[in-house]
Specification:
Elements lengths: L3 E8 L5 E2 L6 E2 L3 H6 L10 E11 L6 H13 L6 E5 L5 H11 E2 L5 E4 L12 H13 L12 E5 L2 E4 L4 E2 L8 E2 L7 E3 L3 E3 L14 E2 L7 E5 L6 H8 L6 E6 L9 H12 L3 E6 L12 H8 L3 E2 L5 H13 L4 H7 L11
Parallel strand pairs: 1-4, 1-5, 5-7, 7-8, 15-16, 16-17, 17-18
Antiparallel strand pairs: 2-3, 6-14, 8-9, 9-12, 10-11, 12-13
The chain binds aspartic acid (ASP).
The site of aspartic acid (ASP) has 11 residues, from loops.
Length: about 350
């Protein structure tokens, strides 16, 4: 049986062409993209595609687009062995994180890729990324099961867990990295899977797509000089239910009473505040310093080593389930799709 793969084309640089007037890159259609990768025919796969009605620059990505991607996968789940999502790099890590929560019980590969240079350019990275993504989506283990059974990002030399990934370069072909989790595969002369890092599925359950995401979420960045009035305004944002607080180092924050009180009052009003570190690598350890301990004492929840991208999308997902704040605060620190290490 030939592997059956469904490509979901959302847009991004990979399919873009230059506007003759402005010289700026703008999204273009799927036929243009495929015409530029004649090698795809050399893969003995059955490939179908779904295209966004209007392919987008991923800076325009929103919750409705995530619904559309999840629907494309859920409606076709049983008919395909794997899925490749073509996406711009700018918000790819957010989409990968969101899909990992929205696609409950996923046990087939969902490989997201794109490129830094448009597919029509001589030195494009898009052709290789697309072909490798298709090969990974089609790969089977010795029991005939898909090798990858999760949402992952394939880019240049690596396959990363989607909800552990971050865009780290606007210029480099190796644009993504997972700072707190090993690569799922290295891409060189071959595709070398790191089997111990891949997500294991004990029992295959039917896919359970979740479409509800609650966007009453915001982020708050700490920096020396943060002003009380501005902080209090942010914490009093109408409708806000959850805040991802980007703290220092191992999860530390100012110990001044005005800061601690403002945060405590927000938590008492029922706002869920998740503590993630501004460091690219490492985890929140509230117990390590007094400055982290005091913050934890206000009821702020530790996000451990979760990425910012996974933190915001997980909050949207948990509030989207209709859970009360206490329950969101409890579940947010428990891994759902391998996004954090407790
Ligand atoms: N702005 C583009 C996008 O995210 C960048 C890219 O695809 O690399 O759609």
């Amino acid at each position: 049986m030939k592997p059956r793969i469904l490509i979901v084309y959302t847009g991004g640089t990979i399919g873009m062409i230059e506007d003759p007037k402005t010289k700026a890159l703008k999204p273009f259609n799927f036929d243009h993209l495929i015409e530029n990768v004649p090698k795809i025919k050399m893969l003995d796969y059955e490939i179908d595609h779904i295209q966004f009605p209007k392919p987008i620059d991923s800076s325009d990505m929103n919750v409705q687009h995530w619904h559309a991607i999840v629907r494309s996968i859920a409606d076709n789940y049983d008919s395909y062995d794997g899925f490749v999502v073509l996406h711009g790099t700018d918000t790819m890590a957010y989409t990968a994180s969101a899909l990992s929560f929205m696609l409950g019980n996923l046990h087939k590969p969902v490989i997201i890729t794109g490129s830094q240079l448009p597919i029509g350019e001589v030195r494009t990275d898009g052709e290789e990324n697309l072909i490798t993504a298709l090969q990974i989506a089609a790969d089977r283990d010795r029991y005939g099961k898909p090798t990858v059974r999760e949402v992952a990002i394939l880019f240049e030399n690596y396959l990363w867990r989607g909800n552990r990934s971050t865009k780290r370069s606007a210029d480099n072909f190796n644009a993504f990295k997972s700072n707190n989790y090993p690569e799922l595969a290295k891409i060189g002369l071959g595709i070398y899977f790191q089997r111990e890092a891949l997500r294991k599925i004990e029992v295959e359950k039917p896919l359970e797509p979740h479409y509800e995401l609650d966007t009453h979420i915001m982020s708050l960045d700490l920096f020396p000089g943060l002003n009380e009035e501005i902080l209090r305004h942010q914490l009093a944002t109408p409708g806000v239910k959850g805040i991802v607080l980007r703290s220092y180092g191992a999860g530390n924050a100012p110990t001044s009473p005005w800061f601690v009180n403002a945060i405590r009052e927000a938590v008492e009003r029922g706002i869920v505040i998740l503590n993630v570190t501004q460091c690219v690598n490492g985890s929140v350890h509230p117990e390590r310093y007094e400055a982290g301990d005091i913050l934890a004492g206000t009821g702020v929840v530790s996000g451990h080593d979760i990425t910012f991208e996974a933190a915001v999308t997980k909050m949207m997902y948990l509030f989207g389930l209709g859970l009360p704040p206490k329950e969101v605060a409890r579940q947010i620190a428990i891994p759902i799709a391998g996004e954090l290490t407790v």
